[in-house]
Design a protein that fits this description.
It is built from 1 helix and no strands. It has a domain at 16-61. It is an all-alpha fold. The mean pLDDT is 77. The protein is 51% helix and 0% strand.
Length: 88
């Protein structure tokens, strides 16, 4: 059966999205900051967590092999009889 996902090249559903990681990081930072420092801690935790999540997602997307143009190139291997020594 054919896949229902029709994305473009480089649009891998398994890759982390910077926006999604920013949202999750902001949420975790807000909850943690609220528990530790009240309202000011929640604001600071949300900003720091969101920024950290976005940067983590952006750096993970840059390092993915889908954007590496050399990953799709075949490696040429030339085997000739002149390279083998059978006179032994």
């Amino acid at each position: 059966m054919a896949s229902d996902y029709h994305g473009t090249e480089g649009d891998d559903p398994n890759e982390p999205s910077p926006a999604a990681l920013s949202f999750v990081g902001g949420f975790v930072g807000t909850v943690t900051g609220l528990k530790r420092g009240g309202l000011p801690g929640a604001v600071l935790g949300g900003v720091v967590g969101g920024t950290t999540g976005y940067l983590a997602g952006a750096s993970a997307a840059k390092g993915s092999p889908a954007e590496n143009p050399q990953a799709d190139r075949p490696i040429p291997i030339d085997i000739t009889e002149a390279d083998t020594d059978e006179s032994g």
